[in-house]
Amino acid sequence: MAETGLLLAAGEITRLEAALAAPGQPLAMLVAVEEMARGWLGHALCTAMRFDAATMTVQRLFSTDHAAYPPGGSKPKRDTAWGQQVLIEGRPFLGEGEAAIRAAFEDHPLILGLGLRSVLNLPVRLNGQCRGTLNFLWREAAVPPPRRAAAQALALFAAGAWASGGAYSA
Where exactly are the structural domains of the chain? Predict the structure, then answer.
């Protein structure tokens, strides 16, 4: 995995364009972004969530671990510091180490039980509103800055899937 910069090969750009043009959004684009991310980020888990502002809940659209985090699962985020930061203010959440994961997530026993020790939750914002999150988790307790920057770029690519207006199911 590259830790220095984000350079896209022509084939990667073509693959992303084809994914965004494909039916079945946002899933088609999320699959393409996650496949690309594996080589760049070295994450152990990737999920994507749709945000329902009226109920302050997130619903899982995509997961690389269907057994632990199946698509369709939802989590309430009303009155949480994480929800305020990520969903309302539109700021990424970086949780490094077991204590940070315990403090931010009710499902921390499952996260830690999978051997995951760091997380980066990236809000997907369109027209000034959060539409969802793209989430990467790692076994390492710290996420180096270049890896965070690459993940943020991938979230920008994934935003096109939310903008497509397609069905939100996986």
Answer: 10-163
pTM recorded for the entire structure: 0.89
Distance CA 134, CA 48 (A): 5
**Spatial separation of the C-alpha atoms in residues 57 and 76, rounded to whole Å:** 4
10-163 CATH: 3.30.450.40
- Hey, what's the torsion of the CAs at 29, 31, 34, 36, to 10 degrees? -80
Over the chain (170 residues), the average pLDDT of each successive run of 10 is 57 82 84 88 95 93 94 86 95 98 95 98 92 96 94 88 54
CA atoms of 167 and 170, how far apart (whole Å):
9
Number of other residues whose CB lies within 10 A of the CB of residue 121:
25
